[in-house]
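Q: What does the assembled structure look like for these inputs?
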Amino acid sequence: GAVVSQHPSRVICKSGTSVKIECRSLDFQATTMFWYRQFPKQSLMLMATSNEGSKATYEQGVEKDKFLINHASLTLSTLTVTSAHPEDSSFYICSAMGTSGGASTDTQYFGPGTRLTVL
Amino acid sequence: AQTVTQSQPEMSVQEAETVTLSCTYDTSESDYYLFWYKQPPSRQMILVIRQEAYKQQNATENRFSVNFQKAAKSFSLKISDSQLGDAAMYFCAYRGGGADGLTFGKGTHLIIQP
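A:
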């Protein structure tokens, strides 16, 4: 139980375009979802926290107009990178916390990640 | 702000031996959670073990156990009978008492020598 999926797993786009990444909890209801960013050979950095039906809370230094987060249902959150530039190239990982299915209340379950390359 | 420190960028251990990965953290909260996650080359984050700060007993999961020293703010991971499949990056992570995001350490690259 407690499976989180992400789509796409890999995306290549041109500079200036927008890219949407989906994060889904498959067998539990995710009351809270998180988005992280991981640069090569580095650790994960929290970008934002989203609760279903509410506006996301962004970490200091993360541009909310550039990284749009929507958490419209208890199983889906999306991250849209707007007007992407090469410096946005990174590995984006979502995680989810929930209270149903196979999920343990206090544990974050991670998606497999999305590798974004901006040319 | 909370910080998590992993002072060992890389560790190497012989197969079947035991290895301990170090982690220290800094917080002013009394209610929090600590985790060890494993990230293999696939980059999928896999939960290894978790510890609630209010529990005095150290968590164990099969070959994995922790040494949680709350006063010293230390949270080390012991892997017994190391297996080739244990090779990965290991991240120590902290979460506050609410539905907060995780603060990760920089990670330790674990190499298993056959």
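Chain A touches chain B through 24 residues (CB under 8 Å).
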